[in-house]
Design brief:
The longest helix is centred in the first third of the chain and has 15 residues. This protein has a 13-stranded antiparallel sheet. It folds into two domains: about 140 residues, Proliferating Cell Nuclear Antigen (Box); about 130 residues, Proliferating Cell Nuclear Antigen. The protein is an alpha+beta fold. It has five helices and 17 strands. Strand 15 and strand 16 form a beta hairpin.
Length: about 300
């Protein structure tokens, strides 16, 4: 079983972004690194209510070699904090390498070597918590919804973060409504204390899935209810990913899952999945003349405005 890869600081930065995204999931300490002979490095994290899956394409590596008796697939669990710390410390290195090795105590680990322009090398070992047999990878299997009922482009993440940071203090859940046909996205909380709604427009995208297009015409919008705290947490991470993100898309599989898909300019990707819960008004009809609000909040009369 062997693994060796070399890559640039740009690829290291992408991996750091993905790890930051994984670290935003609640109650999570470990993630899985999956390496295949298809020359991809995957980072996967799963909790009871959410999961995240990142993939860095082989084209971003100058060297990528993986061999194992399990059809050249290697999977291992590592501490996210240790892996993230190691990759962050290699900032601005001329070249970075990652190997699967054993340390002085014969413990299996990933060894990260960062070489600077002055030819100084910094080496760090990230201990493997558990080597995962391929037949035990079901826990880290990426969800595959039978269909996505609606998808829209995600609005400016920093603006969405500001809204959600306020909303998470108002209710445990936030209702997300994606209107693929009209290109709008609604964040809403409605309880006995406060009613607030934020609508983003101009978010229409082209969907290749014909079934999704048909559904979007049949239902003016598709709604999902998710944890406001978890949703705010992952949007916070996306808001800090920087300019290398080329597109972010939100999609909903009705009654199953909400997906937030981030695509980087180098072809790498990171997808979050949040489990949805039932809502009392899943079947509220869409009102065509509903006013489109841009980051404008509707409050009840008792609300003092301090969201």
């Amino acid at each position: 079983m062997r693994f060796n890869a070399r890559f640039s600081d740009v690829t290291r930065e992408t991996i750091v972004n993905i790890l930051i995204g994984l670290s935003r999931l609640s109650d999570l300490s470990v993630c899985a690194i999956v390496l295949t002979d298809l020359k991809s490095l995957e980072l996967r994290a799963v909790t009871d209510t959410s999961s995240a899956f990142g993939k860095v394409d082989f084209s971003q590596f100058s060297t990528f070699r993986v061999t194992s008796k399990a059809n050249n697939v290697i999977a291992a669990e590592v501490q996210i904090s240790a892996l993230l710390s190691a990759f962050k410390s290699a900032d601005n290195a001329e070249e970075v390498s990652l190997k699967l090795t054993k340390n002085r105590n014969q413990q299996i680990c990933f060894t990260l070597v960062a070489r600077t322009l002055t030819q100084i090398s910094v080496t760090q070992d990230i201990l493997v918590v558990n080597m995962l047999p391929v037949n035990e990878m079901s826990r880290y299997q990426e969800p595959s919804p039978n269909r996505l009922d609606a998808a829209v482009a995600f609005p400016d993440a920093k603006a969405a973060k500001t809204v959600l940071e306020r909303m998470k203090h108002l209710d445990k859940f936030v209702q997300i409504k994606a209107d693929q046909k009209h290109g709008t996205l609604v964040f809403r909380i409605d309880n006995e204390v406060v009613s607030t709604r934020n609508v983003f427009d101009g978010l229409a995208i082209e969907i290749e899935d014909t079934e999704a297009e048909i559904l979007s015409q049949r239902h003016a919008y598709v709604q999902a209810q998710v944890s406001s705290k978890e949703f705010a947490s992952i949007v916070f991470a996306v808001a800090n990913f920087g300019k290398r993100v080329s597109m972010t898309t939100l999609a909903i599989a009705r009654g199953v899952v909400l997906c937030l898909h981030v695509t980087y300019d180098d072809g790498s990707r990171l997808t979050f999945y949040l489990a949805t819960s039932s809502s009392d008004d899943d079947d509220i009809p869409y009102v065509e003349n509903t006013q489109i609000l841009r980051l404008e909040t509707l409050r009840n009369e008792d609300d003092d405005g301090d969201l």
